[in-house]
């Protein structure tokens, strides 16, 4: 450091972290640069890491930084054809500049592996689709590199939904999008209890246009006879807590049904003699009928309009289907059931980053954040994958499976065996059962299936002895039913033989012909097809940021830098100012004086701030004499 003029004979306490950081930057580049920021430093750092590659189409200084990890670039170790389900989500508050951090994650051999990251901040850009277009570019870069998932899981962020549909849905007949079940149920609970932000109207116009006979598939024509009630006002009060619980349970049951999952059929008190499978159309129609009947019972047509427009509406013409992305059914003709139902793997990924790696840091710089992700977060996932593959460590998924096995084993008795054979007709080979526990369990297990691996107790007391769970192996869990292969337990094959024969008899009404050519559509057209409410539209939320920019700048100057890195906090703080225009008019001139940005009519600076903005802030006026 003595060779640099800025560091000649420095006192130890005078050297700041900023000086040390700039000197480190000079060493990494081989020359002295005063203007190198942490964004460029992050690019240099990621490029130096083995196995990491920058995505060139998303290297916009101050706007976007995207890269892929060794989990994606090492094609010999990680087969991209096995990455059939991916998860996409974003998080806030990870860095000092307020960049949103996005991740594409997949479950590979029972281990969650991050494939790519994107740091994105579009608050300073004024263009349509500024966030969605960059998300689409990011995901298309991954698709062009060989990532073609069958299922993509996201929360209720339609910028992510639209970008994933454009990137992975084109020329991919097996593609399905699924909204996280937990986020969906939370959004429903907030709406029906009146706690949702920006609830919007009752969507009367959307409901009126979408329940016309010409806009409905034939299996939903029964709604045409209910048009008058559906469009009526109904009660002004919200539903009660008990009614909200019933609605939540009902919707959860509807969203978890799938054509390859059986159902109990009771006709005049007589239980069916075998497993019964429903078609896509039967599931959709029965779910809407049940919701309609209950909403009529409680006198709430506006609730039915909400569920119809936001969760149960089919695709018609250029209008996208909400039912296809909300339920496990996916698109008509989907023959696979997703392994996952939520995005909790990715939520856990963010928790590990924030609690285990950055809890001692207050919004670190971008290069430090990238260093932590590359050398800590991703490396730990790769180490866990090696440990699981070597058999030295069992993943949490297997531990949950063992816990469920033992819990069900304690419940098996003569009544369970009787229900298994006479009521629910569990199928040992296909690994399916028509009981509710099988449908609601995330790994499709129930006591009736586990009872196949039990024997009567020697004391003849009605209890059964259950064999211990199978030993762990990476082949224990698979991507189709049965999701759990019981090695050494006499079970082999998959469910394709049984369920396909059931589904081949159903004719899909809305299926696309083989000769139809896919039509290329833009991000804006795809987003418009969902007919979003104002609170759901990501582009409206982005445009709403622009008028509040000056207000946020003034409030950040007056209150400090506490909310600058959190866009949601900024919007919440600004929402408490009732007369926003008056607030800006009153404090705009003092703010510009403090920041040295006051300008004349011709755009020239009239005067520069003689003092630092620290002493111009009202709370620091008393410190001027120090």
How are the SSEs ordered, and which strands pair?
Layout: H1 17-29, H2 38-48, E1 53-60, E2 64-68, H3 70-73, E3 85-91, E4 100-108, E5 111-120, H4 130-144, E6 151-154, H5 158-168, E7 176-179, H6 181-192, H7 204-210, H8 227-230, H9 241-255, E8 266-267, E9 270-271, H10 280-298, H11 301-312, H12 322-326, H13 344-357, H14 366-389, H15 396-409, H16 414-422, H17 436-440, H18 447-450, E10 454-456, E11 464-466, H19 496-503, H20 523-528, H21 538-545, H22 549-559, H23 567-575, H24 580-595, H25 613-616
Parallel strand pairs: 3-6, 6-7
Antiparallel strand pairs: 1-2, 2-5, 3-4, 4-5, 8-9, 10-11
Helix pairs in contact: 2-14, 4-5, 6-9, 7-11, 9-10, 10-11, 22-24
Organism: Lipomyces starkeyi NRRL Y-11557
GO molecular function: zinc ion binding
Protein name: SWIM-type domain-containing protein
Percent of sequence in beta strands: 5-15%
Distance between the termini: 33 Å
- Count of discrete domains: 4
| Number of extended strands | 11
What is the subunit organization of this protein? Answer: single chain
The number of helices is: 25
| Helix content range | 40-55%
Shape: globular
Strand order of the largest sheet: 1-2-5-4-3-6-7
Structural features, described:
This protein has 626 residues and is of the alpha+beta class. It has 25 helices and eleven strands. The strands form three sheets. It has a seven-stranded mixed β-sheet, sandwiched between helices. The two termini are 33 Å apart.
């Amino acid at each position: 450091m003595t060779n640099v003029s800025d560091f000649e004979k420095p006192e130890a306490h005078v050297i700041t972290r900023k000086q040390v950081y700039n000197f480190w930057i000079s060493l990494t580049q081989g020359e002295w640069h005063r203007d190198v920021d942490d964004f460029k430093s992050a690019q240099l750092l990621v490029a130096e890491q083995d196995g990491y590659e920058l995505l060139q189409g998303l290297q916009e200084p101050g706007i976007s930084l995207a890269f892929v990890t060794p989990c994606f670039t090492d094609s010999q170790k990680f087969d991209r054809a096995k990455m059939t389900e991916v998860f996409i989500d974003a998080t806030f508050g990870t860095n000092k500049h307020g960049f949103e951090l996005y991740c594409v994650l997949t479950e590979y051999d029972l281990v969650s592996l991050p494939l790519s990251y994107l740091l994105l901040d579009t608050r300073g850009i004024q263009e349509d689709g500024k966030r969605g277009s960059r998300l689409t570019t990011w995901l298309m870069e991954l698709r062009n590199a060989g990532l073609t998932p069958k299922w993509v899981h996201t929360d209720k962020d339609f910028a992510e939904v639209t970008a994933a549909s454009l990137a992975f849905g084109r020329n991919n007949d097996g593609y399905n999008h699924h909204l996280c079940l937990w986020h969906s149920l939370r959004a429903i609970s907030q709406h029906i209890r009146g706690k949702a932000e920006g609830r919007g109207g009752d969507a009367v116009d959307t409901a009126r246009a979408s329940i016309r006979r010409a806009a409905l598939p034939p299996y939903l024509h029964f709604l045409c006879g209910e048009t008058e009630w559906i469009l009526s006002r109904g009660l002004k009060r919200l539903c009660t807590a008990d009614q909200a619980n019933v609605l939540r349970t009902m919707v959860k049951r509807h969203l978890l049904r799938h054509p390859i999952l059986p159902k109990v059929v009771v006709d005049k008190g007589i239980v069916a003699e075998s497993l019964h499978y429903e078609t896509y159309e039967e599931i959709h129609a029965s779910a809407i009928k049940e919701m309609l009947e209950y909403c009529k019972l409680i006198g709430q047509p506006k609730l039915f309009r909400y569920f119809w427009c936001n969760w149960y509406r089919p695709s018609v013409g250029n209008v996208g289907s909400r039912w296809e992305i909300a339920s496990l059914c996916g698109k008509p003709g989907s023959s696979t059931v997703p392994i996952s139902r939520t995005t909790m793997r990715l939520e856990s990924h963010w928790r590990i980053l924030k609690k285990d790696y950055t809890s001692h840091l207050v919004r670190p710089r971008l290069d430090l954040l990238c260093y932590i992700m590359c050398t800590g977060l991703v490396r730990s996932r790769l180490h866990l994958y090696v440990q699981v593959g070597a058999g030295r460590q069992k993943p949490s998924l297997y531990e949950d499976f063992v816990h469920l096995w033992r819990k069900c084993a304690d419940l098996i008795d003569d009544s369970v065996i009787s229900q298994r054979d006479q009521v629910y007709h569990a199928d040992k080979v296909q690994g399916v059962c028509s009981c509710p526990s099988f449908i609601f369990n995330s790994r499709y297990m129930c006591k009736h299936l586990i009872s196949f691996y039990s024997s009567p107790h020697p004391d003849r007391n009605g209890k059964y002895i259950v064999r211990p769970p199978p030993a762990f192996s990476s082949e224990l869990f698979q991507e189709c039913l049965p999701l759990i292969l019981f090695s050494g337990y006499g079970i082999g094959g998959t469910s394709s033989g049984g369920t396909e024969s059931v589904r081949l008899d159903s004719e899909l009404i809305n299926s696309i012909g083989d000769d139809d050519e896919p039509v290329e559509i833009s991000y804006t057209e795809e987003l418009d097809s969902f007919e979003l409410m104002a609170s759901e539209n990501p582009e409206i939320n982005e445009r709403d940021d622009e008028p509040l920019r000056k207000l946020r700048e003034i409030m950040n100057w007056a209150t400090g830098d506490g909310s600058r890195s959190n866009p949601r906090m900024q919007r919440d703080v600004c929402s408490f100012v009732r007369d926003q225009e008056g607030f800006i008019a009153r404090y705009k001139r003092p703010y510009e004086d403090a920041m040295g940005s006051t300008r004349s009519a011709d755009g020239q600076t009239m005067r520069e701030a003689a003092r630092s903005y620290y002493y111009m802030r009202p709370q620091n006026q008393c410190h001027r004499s120090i």
